[in-house]
Amino acid sequence: MRIANLSGRVVLLSDSGAVDIERASEGRFGSDPTAIYGRWDEFRQWAAEAALPAGTTYDEADLGPAVPEPAQVFAIGLNYREHAIESGVSFPAEPPVFTKFRGSLAGPYGELKLPGNTVDWEAELVVVIGRTARHVSADDAWDHVAGLTVGQDFSERTLQLTPPAPQFSLGKSFPGFSPVGPAVVTVDELDDPADLDISCSIDGEQVQKGRTSDLIFSIPVLIERLSAVLPLLPGDLIFTGTPSGVGGGRKPPRFLRPGEEVVTRIEGLGELRQRCVPGTPHTTVSAS
Fold this sequence. Notes:
Keywords: Hydrolase, Metal-binding. The chain has 288 residues and is of the alpha+beta class. The chain has helices at 21-24, 40-49, 81-87, 157-160, 168-171, 219-227, and strands at residues 2-6, 9-14, 17-20, 73-76, 97-99, 105-106, 109-114, 119-120, 123-129, 145-152, 155-156, 178-185, 197-202, 205-211, 237-239, 261-266, 270-278. It has 2 domains: 2-62, no CATH class; 73-278, Fumarylacetoacetase-like, C-terminal domain (Fumarylacetoacetate hydrolase, domain 2), CATH 3.90.850.10. 13% of the residues lie in helices and 31% in strands. Strands 1, 2, 3, 4, 5, 6, 9, 10, 12 and 15 form a 10-stranded mixed sheet that branches. A 5-stranded mixed sheet has the order 7-17-16-13-14, with no helix packed on it. A two-stranded antiparallel ribbon has the order 8-11. It starts with a strand and ends in a 10-residue tail after the last strand.
């Protein structure tokens, strides 16, 4: 299944178009694109057995963030070996975890407003939780996954790395800094959900390329480590990290500029497209 948010309503996407789930289920399931994950097992059974109508055509510009209101958004740093090397740090012994605040979520296609001159790109595979996970072993972790989607972890590096205490969560949470989509794809749609090609390009120039099998901490291990600390809830998102090739790791550094288009692709999941435009400049206020 490919589950998406079309103009604020949850739909299934197919070759024929979009099927509105509330209408197709005659009201059994609502229209909320996030709430469907709270009834994941029931919904999956219905979708497998239902005689769904043909989909209707839609404008991809109307696709919103695949999961617009997750209770929690987790993000993992330094989770590809080559990215850790380009960042100049040792491989982590435990997953470095931060959050991207929910107000930064955006749909798969649209404009990215740049709040400064040091906005960087980070292509990411995003996990969507389908069942509450608490003290879940890695062996059982995939049973708690609703599906996977494409994400971008845009980062304003100046704010992110402000000393003496880095502001990872704020620097990565400007509006539009967390596009996800175009759909949540269930793992049965993929030949190997643990080994997908991932890439990012700017105006057609490939700047990142890797495979998700290169993760230092795999999806099952991430779910095991996170759920050992707190419950993972249906609809929660986990940004799993980015391959090498980010702008801040280049010599000299390269950052996004107005007019550039960022395209993020993951095999079997689709792509994101963001056109960079000027935004309101970010300024910091010194402590008095």
